[in-house]
Structures are given as C-alpha cells and as structure tokens.
Amino acid sequence: MKKASNILWGLLFIAIGIVWILNVTGILDVNLFFRGWWTLFIIIPSIFSIVEKPKDTTGYIFLVIGLILLALARDLISFVLIAKIILPLVLIFIGLSIIFKDVFNGKVSKKINEIDKDGMEIYSATFSDNKVKLSGDEFKNAKLDATFGSVTLDLSDCNITKDGVITASAIFAGVDIIVPDNVNVKVKSTGIFGGTDNKSRNKNDENRKTLYIDSFALFGGVEIK
C-alpha cells in the first residue's frame, strides 16, 4: 500500500506541473487557486492515508472534514447546517467504527477470541505515566488502559512461549508496546481522531509465536515497536 501511496503522490505532482505549464503557455486557462483550494491540503493527504492504511479510520475522518470545509468555501452548505449535524455525524461514525471493526480484522478478531485470556495482567494510568518492563517467560496476556496519561509495556527481554493478547486503550493518551524481535505481531485497531502505528519487525514467520494487539485510540495513539 505504501508503494501505491508513493505513486499517487508522484502522479499528483506531475499533474500539477503539467497544468501549470499549460497555463503558462496559454494552452489552458485553469485557475489552480479556486475558492477553497486550501482544503486540498486536507483532502489529498487523507486520500493517500486511506490508500496506505485502509483500516485506519483517521484518514476517513479527515477526508470528511476536508470535503465539508470545501463545501463551505464553495457556499454549497451553510455553517448553520454543519453546526446542527456535526455531533450526530460524529456519533454515527463512532458507532460504525465499533460495529465494523471486526469485519475489517476478521481473522485477527477470531484468533483473539480463541486465545485463553486467563491471568491477564492490567496496567493503567490516569493523569499519570506507568512504565512496566517484564522479562523471562512471565508474560501471558495484558490489558493496557491510558486516560490523559501514558502506559509503556516493555517486553523486549521476554521469551514469549505461546501466542498472547494485548488489549490497549488510549483515550486522550498514549500507549507504547515494545515487543521482542522474535515474535510475530498482528493488530486489530479502531481509531477515532487517533490511531495505531505498528513499527515492529514483523516477518510473519510461522515458527514464531504471535502477539495479537487489540487497540482502541480516541484522540490518542498506540505505538508498537
């Protein structure tokens, strides 16, 4: 997907350059700076974000915002109407994200439900920071909850002996998960004005154990590294 995003960026700059040349030479008369042109700085990156990360809802949210601002700039809709429908639209979007998150991550969701979650450790932080470092074979499953704070779970020294589940919730907060290099990582994520970034060295080796991350981010972020 990243390659497709790079191609789109390249085609965009090529198209702008061609139109610019045609304008300068008088072949075309296209106004690149139309009313609301600045909204393209929101709309275009959002489209590329959707192409690169189709399961991340952040791109869809900013695309809707960009289109609404463009419609406002073009006098297609009024601020009064937007003020009346913005909250219900947000609620609808949140509801759809919750309902369809398992559809977009069907295989991962199924595996998460199958894994025995007995002995799940809970690490939380509210208006504070909580840093936890585990080692040896002690890790099984974990639940991370951060609200207006941050939680860091460091598993880099753990020898993961079986598949495990980590559920992470970041609400106006951040969650960092540091995983060993010798495990697979599979992610199911829901982001509302937030997102999950998987920077782990994931090789999808069938001989390795797998950590399944079930993340939720609301005005926050979950980072796996």
Q: Could you name the key traits of this structure?
A:
single chain; 225 residues; 2 domains; 10 strands; 39% helix; 30% strand
Characterization of this structure:
With 225 residues, the protein is an alpha/beta fold. It has 2 domains: 2-104, no CATH class; 114-224, no CATH class. Helices cover 39% and strands 30% of the residues. It contains 5 helices and 10 strands; from the N terminus they run αααααββββββββββ. Helix 2 runs antiparallel to helix 3 (57-73) and helix 3 (57-73) packs antiparallel against helix 4 (79-104). It is elongated, with a radius of gyration of 22 Å. 24% of the residues are buried.
Q: Helices, strands, pairings?
A:
Elements: H1 2-24, H2 40-52, H3 57-73, H4 79-104, H5 106-114, E1 121-126, E2 129-136, E3 142-147, E4 150-158, E5 164-171, E6 174-178, E7 184-192, E8 195-198, E9 210-218, E10 221-224
Parallel strand pairs: 1-3, 2-4, 3-5, 4-6, 5-9, 6-10, 7-9, 8-10
The ordered string of helix (H) and strand (E) elements is: HHHHHEEEEEEEEEE
Number of helices: 5
Q: Shape, please?
A: elongated
Cross-sheet strand order for the largest sheet: 1-3-5-9-7
Number of strands: 10
Average pLDDT rating:
81
Which class of secondary structure composition applies to the elements?
alpha/beta
